[in-house]
Amino acid sequence: MQVDYNERIPNNVGLADDRRLLRALERWQPAFLDWWRELGPVGALEHEVYLRTAIGVDRDGWAHFDYARMPDYRWGIFLAEPVPERRIGFGIHKGEPAWQELPGEYRAELRRLIVTQGDTEPASVEQQCRLGLSAPSLYDLRNLYQVNVEEGRHLWAMVYLLHAFFGRDGREEADEMLARHAGDADKPRTLEAFNEPIDDWLSFFMYTFFQDRDGKFQLHALSESGFDPLSRTCRFMLTEEAHHMFVGESGVMRIVQRTCEKMREHDTDDVGPFGAIPLALLQKWVNFHYSICLDLFGSEDSTNAANYYAMGLKGRYQESKIDDDHVLADRMATVPALEDGKLVSREVTALKAMNETLRDAFVADSQRGINRFNKVIDHFGIDAALCLPHRAFHRNIGAFAGIHAAPDGTLVDEATWAARHDEWLPSAADRAFVQTLMHPVTEPGAMAGWIAQPRRGIHGQPLDYRYVEFH
Ligand code: BYC
Ligand code: FE
Ligand code: FE
Description:
The chain is mainly alpha-helical. The protein has a single domain, classed as Orthogonal Bundle (Ribonucleotide Reductase, subunit A), CATH 1.10.620.20. Helix content is 46%, strand content 8%. A hairpin with an 8-residue loop joins strand 1 (48-54) and strand 2 (63-69). One fe (iii) ion binds next to helix 3.
């Protein structure tokens, strides 16, 4: 279905034919815009930004690039094209036609999944709201804003599902999305990692590298859902997610490159005095962001996860490519666990191990990215490498929540943890140092000293294009 841009809410779900739903969403729209003005990008309401907007959901023609003020961005509702005759691919309903309406018996579970997913989207905008004040270039500033408006659209995607399928409590949940806030003492966001402030650009790139990658894997799992509207909306969200991952990976890559150049130039690891970020600090930032993102996958042994899978609501990463029966009734799996103060592996049912299965896919994908960073370090002939810390390190959810482990997985006591914490995770001094590098660079084509130039501009534009016009 074509996207209609004459509508107040662009969409390809036939909103014009559903007056009730249209009215409900038009009531929510001003609340969303108020929220954007209050808690979205600081000081950026009037800027004109070279943004990409979705105009259709097919492979070729969905993106349109032009200047827009962010509050005028055409946030809309886009579902991927339906797969004709789609059937449920896993769980006890495997083989039945996919649900086009809400399956009443799974209402509570679906509501919870959609609310949890939806909550992360505005949370990320809130976490990142001050970064625009210190962007290393116009190119990066534009990418930040692009990510922000798309996360706003992801909220629209979940709010559409709530309004369209959950009646009155759906509308209440949609309002709550704008009432909880990242880091709020009374009403925080649901998942822990979405309450951390993201106040420097090293954190932003680590966030889009690791945390948006959690988004990628969770969205893939939900795109397998037997509830077809959820599947279709997640499939379209994944096309936007790919850009967020690009921003994260290329951002970290450019920092690594600059660091290596300075290490070579000055023949030292300690490149801080030369305005670059030492590899040791990059490692601490990796340790922090990776570990809080591991928590986002939930417990290793989870009845919730087993239910979601058995009910056909949330599948595995690329479910259809896995060669098994997709029911997993009497299969077992091993998950990491803690017994008598020792790290062990334990057998649980494959269904209850679903969170761990998805986390495994995330770990492997993260490692591939780290390997690409290490190739750059290698290319400079520098004998160093970044690595992912052990899964037990700095965990707050699941088997390792109650213990302390070093980055290599060695269990340590409270006193050792306290003494060595600042060697392993960003210390106050590290954060203060990184802050000293955060100055806005607003000259077209210019770049802060701690990060290398990107390879190319956006949508064929030169690097010195005015990606953001300030007003
Ligand atoms: N923080 O059975 P368990 C994205 C709670 S990112 C706080 O292990 P379950 C994005 C849990 O609620 C993708 N609490 O958990 C990225 C449960 O509570 P109850 C977001 C947590 O339910 C960047 C208890 O602990 N999408 O899109 O299997 C920018 C036992 O938990 C946490 C989704 O997450 C935590 N980390 O798994 C913008 C997909 N973890 O029942 C956007 C939807 C667990 O005891 N969500 N708890 O009260 C889910 O699939 C699941 O809710 C989770 C948790 C995988 C998150
Ligand atoms: Fe998102
Ligand atoms: Fe994202």
